[in-house]
Amino acid sequence: MLSSTLIRPGTRPRTLAAAALLGLLAVFLLPAGHADASAPLRQHAAARGKFIGTALATGQLSNETQYRNIAATEFNQVTAENAMKWDATEPSQGQFNFSGADAIVNFATQNNQQVHGHTLVWHNQTPGWVQGLGATAMRSAMQNHISQVVGRYADNPAVVSWDVVNEVFEENGNLRTSFWYNTLGQSYIADAFRYARAADPNARLCINDYNVEGINAKSTAMYNLVASLRQQNVPVDCVGFQSHLAIQYGFPTSLQQNLERFAALGVQVRITEVDIRMQTPRTSSKDATQATYYRDVVQACMNVNACAGVTIWGFTDRYSWVPDTFPGEGAALIYDENYQQKPSYTAVHDALDDGGDPTDTTPPTAPGTPAASNVTANSATLTWSASTDSGGSGLAGYTVYREQGSTDPQLGQSSTNSITLTGLSPSTQYQVYVRARDGAGNLSTPSSTVTFTTTEGDGGPEGPCTAAGTVQTQWGNGYVIQPVTVTNTGSSAINGWTVTFTLPAGHSITGSWNAAFTTSGQTVTAKNMNYNGNLGPNAGTSFGFQVSRPNGNTQTVSGYTCASP
Ligand code: XIL
Q: What would the pLDDT profile of 512-528 be if each residue is shown by its tens digit?
């Protein structure tokens, strides 16, 4: 019984001795009832049919035993942090150097790991000689580079996928005006994919970018590009979401929904470079927040069938690009500088292990019809009778949707059979329903719907707080609102605030700070961070955000509603 749950399909130990040893370990180390809780990350991931990966640096790999041991034990996929980039593999034209790349591939082969090739065509870490070429020469240099680099590993079973193009978008969704784009125009993207397919017909070919985790202007541009490339039979097989997140900027709560819309295009999706930084120094409260971010990233991937896995951009705070790149920030990984597991390690572990039983395909029962109680201008409390789950993985929570036609937006998630929806529009009819989720990600059939109408907003303060925004700066197709001041106008302290506002048509949020943003259609909800939610009477705080808008449009956001919490 212990060994059958400990040793999962796909992680069959190579020898009977190994099996016996694992069995022994199980007897001594594992809490009863949760047989494989102490198994490494890769074992849980494999049991769920996913990879858990890490970026590897060649220096540490050859110099540090502890680094090597953790990399080998915990992960079943690796990405070269730098060793496969152009400046490493072809520093001068036609002079290829695969020493670092080979070291990573050999390590992976020895440890039964997959390699994701990163990256072929990027505007960074590409030598000057490439950037100075004219169009014809640049296109053939690109073709040669791709065919040499991809071709070298085409027959190597460890190397299964490539980031063909990396970071081709600006934040507003325009194509980045890199030297690639400036010299070759947009066609360099399709060409790069075609050259890669020619070099290895079996490799999975990805487009990769950052700040595309949530649904926003940039991810929508990527979505449109992938859709149009695939329509033209350009071989794009996969989309990578880097996920370099920071706890002070809020979690991209539309991550799962975003992965799902890409999956619906027929591509594989994956989290390619997750790290979750914080303003240093570390505190236990920041660690705890970071752990929930890691959990939610991994959980989103687990919940989406087309998500192949999650790669963490390194694993130890001893070696991370974050402090060098974002001054004052760090501690972004799941082990500390001394290779001790942080709360984020446990969060990743538990999210991979969640539900445990990969054979659970039985969804929970449908929740009861929700009852709407306490409806205000901007919020509503719903309660329903709980679902039950008999599939083994247990009930994980509920998601509330608004019935709206072909795609029903999510209004919120709850781990109990009740939720207070916030950020609703005044005088608006809502028809909503609830679905239950279990630990294996199975969704129940929807409950019946309930219809309620929010009360009239009187234009005055909606809650015990007010919010007012100032346009700090604007330009043709964008603007910054800073500060939005939030003031507690009540006579007692508030513990959390929610500011809502409506974006003019065609406007979208491209950045925000000091509040956690969620967007549903044009309605934006900004909630306090853990450090600015408590306001005594008359006390205030502020946050800010940036918006992109159609060129020539002069509208800006106005009209903020504040409620608590
Ligand atoms: C980073 C590496 O971690 C650093 O060591 C290097 O100096 C710069 O590049 N997006 C990517 C990665 O696609 O290749 C980057 O890696 C991080 C951002």
A: 989 999 998 889 999 99
